[in-house]
Amino acid sequence: MPDAVRPSKREETRRETERTILAAAEKVFAEAGFGGATMQLIADMAGLPKANLHYYFPTKEALYRRVVGEIFEIWLQAAEALDQAQCPVEGIGAYIDAKMEISRRHPFGSKVWASEVMHGAPVIQDYLESTLRDWTEGRAAAIRRWISNGQMQPVDPHHLLYMLWATTQHYADFGHQIETLNGGRPLSDEDWAAATRSVKEIILRGVGAL
Question: Which InterPro entries does this chain map to (predicted)?
C-alpha cells in the first residue's frame, strides 16, 4: 500500500478499538436487550475503561444504532448477488448462501435486530420505514421479473422474502435451540454446509425454480 494512503498507526489503533467496542456491544445488546445493557457492561466486556467507550460513542443509543446499522448493512450487501442474477436459482441461491454465512458469523447482530423488532422497533423504526422498505420493493421487483419470465411459480414476493429472512436468521436467533437438538454441539462446518444446501433445495423447489 502506498504511504499516501496507508492508515497511520493511530488510525489503525482507533479502528481496532472501535471494532472491539462494537463486538462487545453486539454481544451485550443481544443478551441483555437495549434496556438491560449499560455502557459499563459493554466497557467491561470490551476490556476498556468506560471513558473510552464514551469517547467513541457518547450515548448508549448512538452505540446501539451503530450495532444495528452494521448488521443491516451486512444484510444489504448480501443481496447484491440477487440483484445481479439472471435467474432465481442463481439469485435466491446466492442470497441464501450469504444469509446463512451471516447467521453463522454474526449471530449476536441478528439477535439484536430480532429483539428490537419484536419490541416494536422503538429505536430503529426509521430504518424500517425508509431503507428496509425501499430495499424490499427493489428485491420484490426482481422476483416479479423472474415470475413474468416463467422462471419460477407465481408467488407473493414479499412473503417469499419474509420466508427467506425467517429461515436463514433462525440459525442465528435460535442457535441455542438448534445446538440442543444437535446433541448439545454447535453446528460443524459440515453441518452448516448441509443446512445451507437443504434450505436452498427446499425453497427453490417450493417456488418451482428447480
Answer: Homeodomain-like_sf, HTH-type_TetR-like_transc_reg, HTH_TetR, Tet_transcr_reg_TetR-rel_C_sf, Tscrpt_reg_YcdC_C
